[in-house]
Amino acid sequence: MLHYCLHIYNLDSPGAFRGGKKQFTNWTKIQFRLYSSQNNTNSRLQITTTKTGVVWLDQVSVMPSDTYMGHGFRKDLASMLANLKPQFLKFPGGNYAMGQYLRNAFHWGETVGPWEERPGHVNDAWGYWTDDGLGFFEFLQLAEDLGASPVWVVNDGASINEEVPTAIIASLVKDVVDGIEFARGGVNTTWGSVRAAMGHPQPFKLDYVSIGNQECWMLYYRGNYQKFYSAIKAAYPDINIISSCDKSTISASNPADLYDVHVYASSANMFSRTSMFDNTPRSGPKAIVSEYAVTGNDAGKGTLVAALAEAAFLVGLEKNSDVVEMASCAPLFVNDNDRKWSPDAIVFNSWQHYGCPNYWMLHFFKDSSGATFHPTTMQVSNYDQMVASAITWQSPKDKSTYLKIKVVNFGSKAVDLNITVTGLESGIKSSGSKKTVLTSGAPLDENSFEQPEKVAPVLSPVADAKQQMGVSVSPYSLTSFDLLLEPSKHSAI
């Protein structure tokens, strides 16, 4: 409430919003456009009054008028996501969903409805206040705008320091089922009507729910999980439920559609994990590697060598796509003014951004979803620092089909390779193929605001492509050969 007259100048036109004590007896929402006559990356908003008194303000925000799909996300940042062609969006995060204490967990019901009525909460997992303007609805909307499947990580009664016993978990179970109704329910349902009032009468496509965040070791997790699983399946039998327990614990009495895996390792260890799923039983639920990242001294703020190690790991996931459903790096974004974790894929501040080497590495894998995997054999004498994979994929632009061969060279040695392609129903065209290389002058090179593409892919044509050809692979590099195929069907190589 405002106890004295408040003047808020509207730069759309000369003049001001004026109001006195009677007009502002209760909380009043004021919304208007501000136009700037110049750019200033260090600007700030000031609200002033000409009279002495007490002014109460809440939920003050300045947003750009032109956002991604008109839904509030910065165009430059959301476009970086869209350019990766993501197939799923996992939210609201791991520890963020839990909180250090349950009172500061992500409670979805408090993050929907009019923004100015959301109470907000302390994100004690990462140490800042959030007004929850980025809430459950906005996450679902972003996934829809990106054409990605939303993967909702629900709070299952556990925080980092607290846990709700199974005997009293029922209200939280109902809360999660209500959340699914918010996303998927018709406009005549209790929570579906709330979504409709927010401007989205059509249901969102929510097909994945993850129960908790790597909490299988906690005392009540398995008992609580059973309650959530039974209630969700009873109301929405088609939803895929993800367990925090590993595959060995899943059975008819402890069912799951998928199981969650987190992988954090040094670059050398991550490179070795290219074979992590090679011996996984081929039956039963598949894995979602929902968090993976190179950490440690050579990870820096996002180095080339860390990106190459993650690329090798992803090559291993491609080879084991029959037992791995999907994978995502973590964390995705970091504000350069409030770094709590390194490395991250995308760095930003109030006016600029750049992708770390691992962001650019992901571009080499964005055509993998829906592609056909082909067995490969690599023979390099006395050198174990290289992995490779091959897929065929179709360009959505012109429907041309390519054979993509990816080679990760994790070592300091340049290698000459002979590529031989056999078993394809269609041949390789002599022109139209391309080579893309991610490398730099040193393995610890990083990108920055000053050099945003110091480590970035370089594209060049492949002259005289054919079924058998010699190529050179640079040290510390990720190389992709996209070989254009003749317009006919293919089988294997």
UniProtKB/TrEMBL annotation:
<dbReference type="Pfam" id="PF06964">
    <property type="entry name" value="Alpha-L-AF_C"/>
</dbReference>
<dbReference type="InterPro" id="IPR010720">
    <property type="entry name" value="Alpha-L-AF_C"/>
</dbReference>
<dbReference type="InterPro" id="IPR013780">
    <property type="entry name" value="Glyco_hydro_b"/>
</dbReference>
<feature type="domain" description="Alpha-L-arabinofuranosidase C-terminal">
    <location>
        <begin position="290"/>
        <end position="477"/>
    </location>
</feature>
<protein>
    <recommendedName>
        <fullName>non-reducing end alpha-L-arabinofuranosidase</fullName>
        <ecNumber>3.2.1.55</ecNumber>
    </recommendedName>
</protein>
<dbReference type="InterPro" id="IPR055235">
    <property type="entry name" value="ASD1_cat"/>
</dbReference>
<keyword id="KW-0378">Hydrolase</keyword>
<dbReference type="Pfam" id="PF22848">
    <property type="entry name" value="ASD1_dom"/>
</dbReference>
<dbReference type="GO" id="GO:0046373">
    <property type="term" value="P:L-arabinose metabolic process"/>
</dbReference>
<dbReference type="InterPro" id="IPR051563">
    <property type="entry name" value="Glycosyl_Hydrolase_51"/>
</dbReference>
<comment type="similarity">
    <text>Belongs to the glycosyl hydrolase 51 family.</text>
</comment>
<keyword id="KW-0732">Signal</keyword>
<dbReference type="InterPro" id="IPR017853">
    <property type="entry name" value="GH"/>
</dbReference>
<dbReference type="GO" id="GO:0000272">
    <property type="term" value="P:polysaccharide catabolic process"/>
</dbReference>
<dbReference type="GO" id="GO:0046556">
    <property type="term" value="F:alpha-L-arabinofuranosidase activity"/>
</dbReference>
